[in-house]
Design brief:
alpha/beta; Rossmann fold; 2 domains; 8-stranded mixed β-sheet; 6-stranded parallel β-sheet; 19 helices; elongated; binds uridine-5'-diphosphate-xylopyranose
Length: 451
């Protein structure tokens, strides 16, 4: 059993802290947001993550998990201090490390015994050295026995607890291999491969992994765009490709592309690091451009079918950047709504979990009624000239399409996640478009032109 402090109770810090508690450790989760700490202490989750409520309550009741705003309290017996605060993109794509600094300084000011400080947040290559400097400077005159270890997270929102408990690997980096081995010990019961390397290499493994996953998605989206013109079906292309063990089938779902608080920020940060150090990340630039273009394509398609979008009503099903999360950060839906608003369209949105987060983003438009937040899919499609599926929530899989069609003003659908079956949709009388299924989209074209 170890004593662990986790700074930051966001999507990553909270999952990290509660899972370490579930493994039998004593964990303090610290946050600077009083509302968040208060709610967590009352068993109210600040984020939606399947299974989080139960595992937090179980560990709070077992006395293994506590929440605080006090570094003194959180670090009193701590042997490990994880930094899991936000590292948002700065203006030019560089990761903003102000919160990492304040966490490192908070630890340096409060700690009075040897500590291992672990960077859990995604931080630019070299940040481990930088945190070492920050802490050393902060402790000038008051020597502290501390080590810094990089331990990047590979948690997907919506499956974060499982990704923590059943990881493909744990990655650790440090100038002190003993410190890295001590952190490795925390993960021992998970019985997974552990990679121990130096700080910069561990930090790069995180960026390279996310950038590669984003590249796979932009690759299949480029293939989808080519399939569109050549009359092929990208869904079946992906199946045929994925059976090759060297390729695999994961992360080959064509659609409106990647969003979230990680891929956009991490790919941008990696490209920025590359340029800063005199290399030319042309592949990463193309990966980002393809991704941006996927959103534009949806609006282009709508404009083609509806002629003008001004004063048209468009239903958006799904606001979160992916299913099973309430996180709307960098969600493709937000960009599509922005593009539609620029063309004078009225947007009616529904999402099973993310409406409250969306209300904060669209407060102005919400007042002007140019963005209407609805409480069901049917309410969102009522009177709509077209429907865009942006997030493939399970509850959208089997909508009552007769009811949908009769509620809409015109039966036009753009399926941004290829969730539905084109033949079924066309049989239901929809003018149905999806991404990269050129064979079906050409039929839709015929249907639309009434030939
Ligand atoms: C963060 C990083 O953004 C991401 O790059 C990394 O991979 C994982 O950690 P996330 O958990 O989504 O991701 O961050 P966020 O949801 O923004 O939560 C950060 C939490 O840290 C917030 O609750 C915030 O209040 C807290 N925080 C921020 C502190 O406790 N101290 C600070 O100084 C700043
Ligand atoms: C990602 C990484 O998967 C995870 O390892 C890392 O720690 C954090 O970033 P996350 O952003 O939570 O996790 O979600 P992920 O499931 O990777 O999806 C990211 C985006 O890619 C979503 O917008 C999703 O809709 C999109 N996506 C994913 C596709 O468009 N196609 C795919 O095939 C897979």
């Amino acid at each position: 059993m170890s004593n662990i402090c986790v700074v930051g109770t966001g999507y990553v810090g909270l999952v990290t802290g509660v899972c370490f508690a579930d493994l039998g450790n004593q964990v303090f989760c610290l946050d600077v947001n009083p509302d968040r700490v208060e709610k967590l202490s009352q068993g109210i989750m600040p984020i939606y993550e399947p299974g989080l409520n139960e595992i937090v309550l179980r560990n709070v009741n077992a006395g293994r998990l506590r929440f605080t705003m006090s570094y003194d309290e959180a670090l009193e017996d701590a042997e490990f201090a994880f930094i899991a605060v936000g590292t948002p993109s700065g203006a030019d794509g560089e990761a903003d490390l102000q919160y990492v600094r304040s966490a490192a300084e908070g630890i340096a000011d409060a700690i009075d015994h040897p500590i291992i400080i672990i960077n859990k947040s995604t931080v630019p290559v070299g940040t481990g050295d930088w945190v070492t400097e920050v802490v050393s400077k902060r402790r000038a005159g008051k020597p502290l026995d501390f080590k810094v270890v990089s331990n990047p997270e590979f948690l997907r929102e919506g499956s974060a607890i499982n990704d923590f408990m059943v990881p493909d690997r744990v990655v650790l980096g440090s100038t002190d291999q003993e410190a890295a081995k001590s952190v490795a010990h925390l993960y021992l019961s998970l019985r997974c491969p552990v990679v121990i390397t130096d700080l910069r290499t561990a930090e790069m493994i995180k960026y390279a992994s996310n950038a590669f996953l984003a590249t796979r998605i932009s690759f299949i989206n480029e293939i989808a765009n080519i399939c569109e013109e050549l009359g092929a079906d990208v869904e079946q292309v992906a199946v045929g490709m994925g059976l090759d063990k060297r390729i695999g089938s994961a992360f080959l779902n064509a659609g409106i592309g990647w969003g979230g608080s990680c891929f956009p920020k991490d790919v941008k940060a990696l490209a920025h690091m590359a340029v800063l150090h005199g290399t030319h990340p042309q592949l990463l630039q193309a990966v980002m451009e393809i991704n941006r273009n996927q959103r534009r394509q949806v609006v282009y398609r709508l404009r083609k079918v509806l002629k003008s979008l001004s004063d048209k009503t468009i239903a958006i099903l799904g606001l979160s950047f992916k299913p099973n999360t309430d996180d709307i950060r960098e969600a493709p839906s937000l960009e599509i709504i922005h593009l539609l608003q620029n063309e004078g369209a009225i947007v009616r949105c529904y999402d099973p979990q993310a409406i409250d987060n969306a209300r904060q983003v669209f407060s102005e438009e919400y007042q002007k009624k140019s963005v209407v937040l609805c409480s069901s899919a049917i309410e969102a499609v009522s009177g709509a000239d077209a429907l865009v599926l942006t997030t493939e929530w399970n509850e959208f899989k089997n909508l009552d399409f007769e009811q949908v069609k009769s509620a809409m003003r015109s039966p036009v659908i753009v399926d941004g996640r290829n969730l539905w079956n084109p033949e079924v949709m066309q049989k239901n009388g929809f003018i149905y478009y999806s991404i990269g299924r050129g064979n079906y989209n050409q039929q839709a074209q015929t249907g639309e032109n009434g030939q």
